[in-house]
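S.,

Sequence below, as promised.
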Amino acid sequence: MPCKLKFPAIVAITAFATLANARMAQAADAMQATYGATVQTTLKNGPTGIFRFNADRTFTGVMTVGPTAVPFAGTFTTNGETLCVTMTAPAGWAGKPHCTAFGVHAVGDSWIDADGDAHAIVAGR
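The prediction came back faster than expected:
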């Protein structure tokens, strides 16, 4: 039985499938916008920091607590829009993952998470 779809319907179906695939790819990696960018964080209790996330699921950064800047590193996982970070350095911070709803954001976005911490994604490292 021959296909009776008209050309405009085929174009519409193709456009919808392309858009759906693009959205699924973005949702598949909620952290995509952070690679090559810097996430600035201000914790609700005062310390500030920067995170540099990498596509290989590692990150580095610096947390400033009072006058002291502490470099850190770790790994991360995502589950949908939930981000879990596990510090690997410094030794005193290493251990159990901390998970939070991160969402899908773009460079230029800023938001306050469920823990009350403020974040912004800025271009560049």
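The domain at 31-123 is CATH 2.40.128 (Lipocalin).

Coffee later?
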